[in-house]
Every structure is written in C-alpha cells, then in structure tokens.
Amino acid sequence: RSLKKLVIKNFKDRPKLSENYTEDTWLKLRGAVNAIQNSTSIKYNLEELYQAVENLCSYKVSPTLYKQLRQVCEDHVQAQIYLFREYPFTIISLDNLSFLKRMNRCWQDHCRQTIMIRSIFLFLDRTYVLQNSLLPSIWDTGLELFRTHIVSDTAVQKRTVDGILEQIERERNGETVDRSLLRSLLGMLSDLQVYKEAFEEKFLNETNRLYAAEGQRLMQERDVPEYLHHVARRLEEENDRIVSYLDQSTQKPLISCVEKQLLGEHMTAVLHKGLSTLLDENRVTELALLYQLFSKVKGGLPILLQFWREYIKSFGSEIVCTPEKDKDMVQELLDFKDKMDNVAHNCFAHNEGFINAMKEAFETFINKRPNKPAELIAKYVDSKLRAGNKEATEEELERILDKIMIIFRFIHGKDVFEAFYKKDLAKRLLVGKSASVDAEKSMLSKLKHECGAAFTSKLEGMFKDMELSKDIMIQFKQYMQNQSDPSNIELTVNILTMGYWPSYTPMEVHLPTEMVKLQEVFKLFYLGKHSGRKLQWQPTLGHAVLKAEFKEGKKEVQVSLFQTLVLLMFNEGEEFSIEEIRTASGIEEGELRRTLQSLACGKARVLNKTPRGKDVEDGDRFNFNMDFKHKLFRIKINQIQMKETVEEQVSTTERVFQDRQYQIDAAVVRIMKMRKTLSHNLLVSELYNQLKFPVKVINTFICYNLYYCIH
C-alpha cells in the first residue's frame, strides 16, 4: 500500500513537473497508476509497480522518488523498533531465547521486504543510484536503517548480544542450542558491520574469563593426559563454532585466547606435573598431542625443549652414575636411546632442535662418570661378538653394533674404550672365542669410520698377525713332517707383534718336557726364517685339548694352559695339596687359586676338593674325579680365560692413564714450542682443544716441569 501511495503521490504532483512533458507521457503514467490501483494479482502487481517506477524515472523524478522511498522504509523500520519499546514489561518477562527469536524474525522479515523493494525499484537502483556514487544502494539503505534504528538501540543491542553469549556459554557447558538461530543473528551483526564492536569484544572477554577459571580448576583436578585431551577437545569445539556460526575474523583471536588460557598460562605446570610420567610410561599418543598443542603457543616449544633436555640428563645420569646398575648400564642406555629416538621422530615431528638437544643431553650425562661407560661399552661389544652368543642373528647383530656406535660417539674418553676393546679382542682371537670374523671386521670398519685410521691401526695389526700366524703354522706342519722324530703333540703358535697387542705380564711356569722340546723346535724353525727377531713365550692365553679317561668312558677336555699343567700332575699321583701344585707348576698364587676353583668348584668338576666349598683355601687337597659325567664328548672348561680379573681391569685402566699423561706432556711441549710464552688459562684451553679425552687442570703442573726441563 505504501508503494502504491508513493506512485500516486508522484502522479498527483505531476502538474508541477509536467510543463515540458508531452501528452503521451502523461497518459502513459496515468494509465500505469490506474493499473496499480486496480491490480488484483501479485504477479501483475509487481510487474505494474516495476513499470510504474520505470515510467516515473523516465519523467526525471528519480531524486524525489529515491528520497520518498527512503522515508517510507525509515518509517516502516521505526515502527518495528516501537514494537520492542511499546511493551517493556513483556520484553523483560521474555527469556533471552524468545527475545532472540523475535529479533531474528524481525531481521528475516526486514531482509525479505528489502529484497522485494529492491526488485520493484531495480530500475531506480541501476540508473539514478548507480550514477550517484554518494548515494547508498537500496539494499545498503535497508541495512543502514535497520542498524540505525534497531540494532544500535542500546537496550536492544545489549539484550541481543547478552542472549547470544548466554547461548554460546550453554553450548560450552554441554547443552544443545539452536545453531541456525545463532548463525542468523551473528550474520546480521556482521552484515550490519557492528559484529566487532558490539559482539566480538564481549565474546572474547567472556571466553577469557571462562577458560581462565576452567584452566585453573582442571589443572588441580585432572592429571596431565586428561588435561591435554580436554584442551584438544576445547580447541576442536571452538573451531567447530567458527565453522558453524561465528565470523571467520574471530578465528585467530578466539583460538589464541583458548590456547593462552588453557596452555600458555600453565605450560610450566603441565611439564612439571606430567612430562616425566608421559616419558617414563612411553605415552606416545599424549606426547604427540603435547607437542602439537605446545607448538601452537608462543614460547611453547622452547620450554618443552628445555624440559625434554633436562629429563634426558636426569634419567641418563641415574643410569650412568649408579654403580649398582653397571651390569646392565649399556643395555639400559641402548633401550633409553631407542625410546627417546622414537619420541623425537614419532611424537616431536622429527624436529631438528629436539634431536640435537637429545644428542647434547646424552653427551652431557654419559661423561658425568669418566671412563666407566667407555669400559662397559667395550665389554658389551665383547659379549655380543663372543662365540656362544645366540641372542641375535647376523642382521640383528649388525643393528646392535650400529646402535652401540651411536652411544660410542657421545663418549669423550675413547682411549678407555680402545684399551678394553683391544684386550677383549685379543682374548677372542687367541682363545678362538670370536663368533664371526665378518662381525669383527664390520665393527672394526665402524670404528675406523668414526675415529680414523690411527684409532684402529693396532686393531687391524692384530688381525694381520692372526692371518700371518696361519700361514706360518702351515709351513711349520710341513717342517715337522720332515723331522726324524715327530712329536705326538700338535702345536699351534700365534706370532704376535708386541706393539699391536695388549701387554701381558711375563710369567715363568714349569712346562712338561715334551712341551718344552716342541717349543724349542718351533723356535729353531721360526728364527731360521726370521733372523734377528726375539720370541717371548706368553702362557697366559694358551689353551689345550686333553684326552682323559673316566669311569663313564673317554672324554676330551678343552682347558687353559694353566689348567693343563694342573691336570697333567694327576698322571703322576692321586692327590696333591695346593702348595704341592704351586711348587710343581710354578703358577702364580692368585692365578692358581682361580684355576683350581674352575676345575674343582665349577659346573664341570674334573677334580674333587677336600674339604668341599666354593673357595680354594690354604690346606685344601685335590684328587682326580674318576666319577665325572657329562653328556658331551668334548667339554669346555677354559671359559675362565675369558673372564676379566680385578687385576686385569685395574692394569688396563692404569695403562690408559699413563698413556694420557704422555699425551698431555707431548701436547704441552708442542704448544709451548709454538707459542713460546703463554698464560696458564690459555695453555689449559689449548690442551682442551688438542686432546681427545677429558683433562683435569691438576695434570698440567707436571707438564710445566717437563717443559722447563726440555727448555
């Protein structure tokens, strides 16, 4: 009706505007007005109204038409706000949801009306309004009027925004709300360009308040895994709200707010409370979630990195610095390294910073206890490369050696490893206890690649000696075949270059006449081929196979040379005291006690001891055990040779320290010859740079004396 009145009013004003118009135009406009007034069909109404507007615009009354259209629309919108203000008691009694629904209906009706008006006045919108850039379009005019007279009303806006916030809070508390209603109303605020000032600021403040309180409460009530899953769920919910009804511009501040209140304010507390537990229990899922969440917060990853590094140092230090764990130290280190590698790669997204921090932490804690880790790693390698190790296939053994090399890289005192590795390698080679030559050479290759050729030159020399010894023994057997009086003992000799092998304390023992004679034959043979060389017999790692007769039958017994000397005595007598055995064999007392213990107190007791007991004491007497039984024909009793004595361990360590002292002395001389004059602090710094093992400052005072003497 208002549109019809507007067209008629312009027609009635025609005399003022029609002086220059032709009669045909006048008749056309009058016919259009009559057609609008008599219209009965909606379709024709719209078409006639559109035609009437076009006719009016043709009469150049567009400014007046636009002005009066705006006035009609404004009157209509003002009438709507009066409906909200006319019944204040009713509005107050309405719950917020009903108020929101009423507001939404008002907005939807306004949008539909504005679209219809724009359709009818489309000719006006696309001609007059389009040609005047300062004038808003009919649609923009409708939005402006609704914003000015309804949404900008203080009471209406507050009630609307408070109602929306109440619905969002209910949804956050687990209740079901009408998302389409919220989407429509927030779209209204966005279309009216009041979303940020009217809603977003209050919404973010409420979000801050809610999650600040929730974070404080849940940190007290829940453990860390539960809390992390709760934070992830909250972030997922807020992202879903953005997709469902919030404006996209709210996403960044909203998510930042949630992350700050639930994570940023509690990062240290979360890590203090739960990181150690997550790592101890290997909670891979929660660790990955922790990394994912902390990566979203400013400063999250650096603090996680710091706690990760400290955890590794603390846990590793407990493994390394607890003497009671020495037996399983290396295996625990390997397991711990595997575990941390898995966390770094699968939970921390292969982050280079975390991987480097892990390496730094391992290097720090593994060197807190000097020398011992290097010694135990060498012994662990020995246990894996020794014959009889059925724990792993060749492929598994290769993987184990690769893992050991990773731990080996962290050690500063690699000379300790070298000394113990060389000692154990010598035993494996000389006693024939090496599981695989290929595995031995593979380990040697790894060490050479890691530490250089100088580190492995002596180890490689040991293998060369063994290969040369095989060739020499082939020649010796041929030599023995040509002798007029061949021996019934088969002798195998390993010729060792003294500089390559560990040093062994010379020990003079009383060998049987047949053995002494055979030694002299070999000496004559060898020196005949290599004049100028000197042979020194070393009985410590010698071994033999003896044929023995028991009541059960004949057996072969594989024993050490010292065990051989003891057992051969029982060909001459039935019972001997420890003192008699010592005198007859010439074996050093400590070594003799270990030898007798292995023969009379071990699993294969070929000797009987009187009185019985686990230890060999003065006054004990020994006799041959004719009742000895064993399921195997060849029995190995010489495992005692592979066991390290306390004296061996101390001797190896002392040699390492002595070699270090020589290296320190040499380094000081080199530095001072080059620098001439140098302060103490700079000299120590230069020593740290040149030496490959940790050096204590106290050692340098000895070096000064050495330098002064040379100078």
From TrEMBL:
It comes from the Eukaryota. Pathway: Protein modification; protein ubiquitination. GO terms for biological process: protein ubiquitination; ubiquitin-dependent protein catabolic process. InterPro entries: Cullin, Cullin-like_AB, Cullin_homology, Cullin_homology_sf, Cullin_N, Cullin_neddylation_domain, Cullin_repeat-like_dom_sf, WH-like_DNA-bd_sf. Residues 372-600 form the Cullin family profile domain. SUPFAM superfamilies: Cullin homology domain, Cullin repeat-like, Winged helix' DNA-binding domain. One of its GO terms (molecular function) is ubiquitin protein ligase binding. The keyword Ribonucleoprotein does not apply. It holds the Pfam family Cullin_AB. Keywords: Isopeptide bond, Ubl conjugation, Ubl conjugation pathway. Belongs to the cullin family. This is Cullin 4A. It comes from Neogobius melanostomus (round goby). The lineage of its organism: Eukaryota, Metazoa, Chordata, Craniata, Vertebrata.
